[in-house]
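[step 3/7] fold_predict: job queued, chain A
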Amino acid sequence: MPDARYPLSFEPTFKNLYGAQLLAIVVTTWLYGISFIMLTRYFVSHSRNDPVMVKVVIAVLGILASLEAIFSNHQLYDYFILKNGDLSQRDKIPFSVPVSDSSDIITSRVD
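[step 4/7] structure written:
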């Protein structure tokens, strides 16, 4: 029952809650695929003359990007497959959210 002091500004439907998240994760996964191709091409054909430290930094960034993509897609799977239609599970945050956010924070510090 909505509180009269704080009226709802929108109806909390599945579309309103998770549509933007679905779109963001799809775009993120697409961009990850492009960056993974670039990372692979770098190590296969362009990394011969670079110092070891540059190679290590690029490898760490690739690993962190992979973790972020994996856990973002796990969050998508958790919301849309495992908890689909279960309103009691709406307020529970899956473990993949803090891990994905942590990899984003570490990636921003490495740059």
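[step 5/7] annotate
Residues 17-110 form one domain.
The chain has a mean pLDDT of 82.
exit 0
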